[in-house]
Amino acid sequence: xxxxxxxxxxxxxRSTGRPATSPAGRRWTLFCLSLSLALAMAAALLxxxxxxxxxxxxxxxxxxxxxxxxxxxxxxFTAPRHVDCEAWxxxxxxxxxxxxxxxxxxxxxxxxxxxxxxxHSRLGYARPWPSKIPGSCSTERDFxxxxxxxxxxKGIKVELYMTDDPQWHNEVPGVQTLDSDAYSAYKGEKVDxxxxxxxxxxxxxxxxxxxxxxxxxxxxxxxxxxxYWESHHLYEQIRAKxxxxxxxxxxxxxxxxxxxxxxxxxxxxxxYDYPSAAFTPMPRISExxxxxxxxxxxxxxxxxxxxxxxxxxxxxxxxxxSSMKSLMAETAMVNGRFPPSQQEYxxxxxxxxxxxxxxxxxxEGGGYMYGGMQPGFWNDGAHGVVTVRPGARTQYVHVLTRPxxxxxRLRDNGYRATKVTDVRTGKAMAFSQSGGYLTxxxxxxxxxxxxxxxxxxxxxxxxxxxQNSLRATASSAAxxxxxxxxxxxxxxxxxxxxxxLPASVTIDLGSRRKATSLAVNQREWSPTHARSTFGRxxxxxxxxxxxxxxxxxxxxxxxxRSGALPSARGVQFIDIGERTARYLELDVRNTWAGPQxxxxxxxxxxxxxxxxxxxxxxxxxxxxxxxxxxxNDREGGVRTSECGACSGSSRLVGxxxxxxxxxxxxxxxxxxxxxxxxxxxxTAGSATSLSVRVNGAAAVDVAVxxxxxxxxxSTAVPVPLVAGANTVEVFSREARGPGLDRIxxxxxxxxxxxxxxxxxxxPHGLQWVGAGQQSVKVTAKLRLDADDILDGVQLAPKVxxxxxxxxxxxxxSSMRLGETLEASWTLTSPPGADVASTTVPVxxxxxxxxxxxEVTQSVGVRPRPxxxxxxxxxxxxxxxxxxxxxxxxxxxxxxxKVRNIGGSAAADVRFPDVTVDRAGTYTLFIDYTxxxxxxxxxxVNDGAPVEAAVSGIGNSTPxxTTVPVxLAAGANTIRIYNDEESAPDLDRLSLGxx
Length: 994
Description:
It is a single chain. The protein is built from twelve helices and 57 strands. Strands 2-3-4-6-7-8-9-10 form an eight-stranded parallel beta barrel. Helix content is about 15%, strand content about 40%. The chain is globular. By secondary structure, the protein is mostly beta strands.
């Protein structure tokens, strides 16, 4: 292969490794002296323990004050790809590259820093500075120095990206981007840069060269760790030599690092809610790094990919609402300029953020350790976040998804509002506060991306008991994380149930006192939904099913509330009505995590629990359609009753016995005729129902589930309305109906809206079966993840023609948050024939506000090749994946593979029940993908391993290798692993005839 030309060094340097005597040579001598001192320091550190996390440090202050950064992947392979270093540098300069342009564009985005990713495995390992260390492309012009100086002049920090990965050194056929011979001559010994150790040595030297020559750099952004760096205590040396610099790691929480970056998270609901996929609790600095172009590579590939303004602005704001930094990746062209779509977005951001800058700069995410109201899903489809100024006297409500009505209603978290202002228009807003909610009314000026309200408060959560007045005990606790941590007033300490569920924590109020709700801040250490990030299995460790009980003596208990909490970030509330007790017990029955994510399964962590004794009341405006409003007509025994948790602190009771006891809402207006969503906020201690009659039409019955008789729940149904004023009559046919707090009327969700569910079908992965008639047992579970209602639910397989099924459909009249529906079936192929390739869909069908929907997962059945006695996918649910995880792979068998095998004993794949008729030696076929040189270790029944060494390019093409294995007759277990190093990705195993 040809080597890419790199730094232009003198003949003397090429032959001796020392520069000729010159000003540059003298600088080189000084650098060598500094490097020698650094290496001496390294020798002293080799026996030292690894540094521990410095979660908070003065050097981090500038990053903590930042909202965003600009991520630039720009190098020799930027389109049009160059394979000659000098030619690339020439074209960069000839094209008019300017450091000031990047700095100015960063400022448009509200970015405080730039991360320059040029020394990147997919960009030719180019170094945009005049390096004296041979081994890869290095420029004569000091682009890095120019950028650092330009940033310093305009208040923009610069961090340098460093890769740990040599595996893409020969990505371009016939071109070798790493020059091992040149680096070996420089070091005076043979070093292979294409190995992880050799590349680790090479890149290790780059760190010291950069530290010596660029003191105004802000730090290093490190794309995962290299074993050589760690064994030589690189990070400790950076701390010693450049103590003011920051260290960031990508996708890993490395203790010594200042920042944890979370790369390109997708699959959230809403799609822009980036923090819901993060795994780092405050106050650790976390960063979301994502591409602004909606397609294409991280670097310029020759195309002007579009930017989704809605998605990108949403990510920017939600990250700020969780104190995450938005590291936005743009794809600079060879001359440094951005493609038109990205340039347009930058110009837009400069104008769009200007009026709301006060809500983003100098603020922290609200609803967490810094205080503030509750972020997340609000009323009528609304979603947003809260940012707060220090002390939370000033809070900003960011409405990213507007509700279907003209009001926003969110939990106030005990803060009393004194004034609400539209930040963009300066208009004072009408508001009402009661029952634990702040309602902002009469909103007309909606921004298409983020409507922002400034909420002035008194800065105090007066409705909560002081944390130092409470005591806590628990059923179990991990060492160092006692129950007392939930009432210590610090979000940096937490109770850990020690992997035990169910688990309970008991709060002692000190004496019999009034209690109305619990405010629970769980540890923000997991995503809020099941996902697989780069093959790493993740799931939510948030509380799912719970019960709250009260006691006067700690022995006799009464359950006052049970249900499910949503899997969501930020503070969560459990209202219990007005209770008087000394003890409150929160019993956590399970969490949202599933067995596919063992790191999170059964792991409960809670930062703080606060106990409320009331709710703030403020604002003079009345929330529309309150049941107790005097503008409504009441009939019979319907009357007002106090309800501290209700809107307006009151409700109507006395329903039951039919329409003679009713309330009629007049002037329920609709802009146009059509079907609308009407929501009833009701209270009921036992299951009952309401009936609703619109404009005198036939009444529709509405089922009301059992709950706490003093805490409102919600149920919604579709109703037809005429344009203009409508009348809505509400009554109950039951002997005793529920209480009614309020109704809310809004448009139906779009037909495309499907409440978030999780459906798990077992077996997962293609099922390879032998000859003749075969049976497959299928189990499916549907779980409702959204705070919504599914009606008329049915779960069943769609049986292929000629197949038979044992077992009927599972049904439920309705499902609410966290509820599940499960069933099993046995499917049998047609008799007298081999199984043909078949796909069996398992479908959950249900109604949402009268609209039918389906979600489907399929089981694929395939005939096993005649020359194989066993075949199973790596992602098959019968296997145990440890800390490895599934990931998509379109060319792989079944469209999936298992990634992140190796590097530790836990990162393995176990294939149980590998059954053969007789003992003997078999050929094991291993289907894999790999980039570079890697090895599997194969062990049968925990015996001595056999190595399968493989090599490849790109990690996207399935390839097969074989090893001999000795099996016992009957069931065997095959383990695929590599405890020391990363292994290839695994697609499938199969056994040939003995």
